[in-house]
Every structure is written in C-alpha cells, then in structure tokens.
Amino acid sequence: MEELYGVGFLGSRALFFEDVVVIYMALLPLLLGVSVWFAIKARYKTHRITQMLLLLLTLVALGSIQYDIHLYHTFDKLVDVSSYPSKEIFYLLMVQTFFSMLTFVMWSSNIIFAVADRKRRALPGLYSSSHIKSSRRLGVVIFLTVLLTIALYWILYID
Hints:
The protein has five helices and no strands.
C-alpha cells in the first residue's frame, strides 16, 4: 500500500503537488482579499487579471484533487487507510465536489457578467452594487469549498 503514496512536504501521504494544492487552497481567501483590495483602490485592471488568474489556478487545484482521489490513488484505496467510515468520506467527497462545481460556475458567471458590464460601461458604475452582492455570495461558497477541500485532504491523507 505504501507504494501508492508520495511523501508530501507537509508530512502526509499525499503527493508533493497535492500539498502545494492544499496550501494554495488555504491561502485562497487571503489572495481573494488582495484582489478585492485592488478593486477598492480603483485598480480595476489588476483586479480583473488577479480574478481570472485565481479562477484558473483554483480550477487546476480542484481538478488535481479530484484526479488524485478518483484516478491516481482511487477512492477505495484512500478510504482503506483512513480511520473514518467510508460512507462519511464518500458524502464529504460528494459535498466537496458539488461546492467545487458551484464555485466554478458562480465564479465564471461573475467574471462573464463583469466583462459584459464593463463593455457596456456599467462596471464600475451602474452595476457595481449587484457585482459586489454576487461577489459576496461567491466568497461564501469559495470559503466553504476551501474548508471542505482541507477537510477532505485531512481525512484522506493525514488521518
């Protein structure tokens, strides 16, 4: 069983890249805060670039976790070495997958609408308040995705 696992720099059974991913996910709320700060300081181009970059990095991070769980290690082998019941881990994985997809859909649509509103010269301006409201909802979903991803990592690779 040991040949399935790498030795991550966090001391887990995960591969090195998965340790990088979990650190990125833990830092994502902070990185998003910096991106929002750019918007508050009216540095809109930097805000747009950082949002698109963070979306792409998050997509790669969440995709690599799903790849590692489903294809590289396979879920059953990861569950065998965990101390948690397989049914609970499965439910956690399903909820984390749902929130990952919801994050991608909400974040993508938020960016698409922002680009369209910017072309109509309504952002910043007329649609700023609706953009802020949808971004706050997105922030909550991203935060839940981060928590679920870290919990899944903990259960499958550390505990």
